[in-house]
Amino acid sequence: MNDPDFSRCIRDAGGRVTAARLAVLRCLAAAEEPLTPDEVLEHLTQTPGHVPDRVTIYRAIDWLSAHGLVRRLATVGRAARYEPVEDREAHAHFQCRRCGQTRCLPAPSPPLPTLPPGYVAERVELVIHGLCAACRAGENA
Question: Which controlled-vocabulary keywords does the entry list (predicted)?
Fold first, then answer.
């Protein structure tokens, strides 16, 4: 997704296109894994141009999440992580219980169970918790 698409998505969601919203969307779209708001700030400080302050980044993420442009991932004992909602299918994630690293898994998610009559799924999350390779290697050292 390029910047004109980001701007259009924000406008289509009924919002004002701001530098912070665009910066957060760019950052999350470029990331290889879901990021915490503090990681977004860290990434933005490494890129040239104006860097929104921490409060502005949190507000931008809250707005983008409330309007369905980014999704909040369930995490255990760590800050929430976010990823852009794109035209791709939902996918599973792996989260390391020690370092908190969260990775998108390329394999398709398992099929959903059949819901009772009248029920409608609005959001599905599959997060596999365990140890990443680095933390596991440290455990065996």
Answer: Cytoplasm, DNA-binding, Iron, Metal-binding, Repressor, Transcription, Transcription regulation, Zinc
